[in-house]
Fold this protein.
Amino acid sequence: MKKTLSAFLTVLFLATFTASGQKENLVSVNQLVVVANHPGPVISKDIYGHFSEHLGSCIYGGIWVGADSKIPNTYGIRNDVLFALREIKVPNLRWPGGCFADTYHWKDGIGPQEKRASIVNTNWGGVTEDNSFGTHEFMKLTELLGCDAYINGNVGSGSPREMAEWVEYLTSDSESPMTKLRKENGREQPWIVKYFAIGNENWGCGGNMTDEFYANTMRQFSTYLGNYAGNQLYRVACGPSDFNFGWTETLMKDGGTRDRFQGLSIHYYSIVDGWGYKGSATKFDEREWFETMRMNLQMDKIIKGHSAIMDRYDPQKTKGLVVDEWGNWFNVEPGTNPGFLYQQNTMRDAITAAIHLNIFNQHADRVKVANLAQIVNVLQSVILTKDDKMVLTPTYHVFRMFRVHQEARLLNIDLRCEDYTNGEKRIPSVSASASVDNEGKVHISIANLNPGKAVVVTCPLIGETYKKAKGEVLTAPEMNSFNGFDKPETVKPAAFSGFLLKDGLLTVTMPSKSVVVLELTK
Ligand code: AHR
């Protein structure tokens, strides 16, 4: 396949010189070659996953209102949020943290709600956590969403026994104290739990461990996590954040450690100007826009770096990279609790989502799971709520548009594009990926990172002929346009007509700061 592509490109670039040696502008400045006849790996639907932590109003208020609430709900889960999330085909949901996970004792959150102990959420604002949303409520949520459960266990302040019993409570069908307890609490049948993480950020809030210490601890905890009643746990070991390749090396180098997990997590947040003043989510200038995109694009280097280490020890790619926290992290909205991490979401966040999802698609051979932080009301959410109101953020719309890539096969692309510059710094102005689904439909997702310039992208389609195309576009009047509770539809997708499909060449005119998803059929 590579040969086909490079041969094609050579022909194209030779064609830029005429017989007289004059350079001709036959090659578009922005060119996206799509090789349609050699599909690559399947894009795991789970890279479109989400993350729900007991943090601010993500769970309480955002998802869980309780069965007695005036807000319409199903078993206590608000209907508006539920229905909206079904639309984006949430494939898996991670819970209960985050940092909260390593302080969470699951037995506090089972049994009659009025008898559950209240605790203090020490990580997030010191608020009272009444444990009314626990294991049964979370599993009900996943059932209602039709998604897989991704549960994050407590290593930092828990014990191997506590974690082992949670897995047994959830998934066993044998007679045991844990299954008896589950049945007493109203659940006869075991649940299916696909993903289970052995701690979260154990180099930080999850116990401040060294890599060697964590590797040994993980081996111990993992030993007691059973596969019951046909449930096959995909164990996720805590990985590093950002560019900490040493941690990955430690987790991967030893076969005895490697054998104890199926996936290795990494976390990466885009934080403009560092952890102090992170900038406003809505009031920013073009430098901050540019810096956000520049940081978003680092995700590719991070994945490549960790993948290269994994490739050395796992060339067959049996272990997945699990990017279970990613997204933009800005200052909290003025007047909100600093521990609640509540931020608005603009067109900038939509481009961020498109950049990341395109990168994850491109790494379909290694990245098997990814979870945006977080699903509702926290960081780069897809949904914001205020009492009984709900808005869908620009990020939500990107997830809805990109859902067509779930379980499709990656297509090889070659993207050459002009740079988008800010001062001395430069980044590519276009981000893209393409896939073919099992009905033969090709989807191409493209983002124009430049907030001040439309770009034309020519797409030669190699190997197959497509006759029809349609598309959707997400763009906005301003870089910082957002959906407020008073104007919930400022940023929303529209049918896209800015393309031409002729003789195997697709020409797409991308408005400034836009995301386009095109569907091609024969
Ligand atoms: O998503 C917010 C926090 O960021 C998570 O709890 C933690 O894992 C990370 O540091």
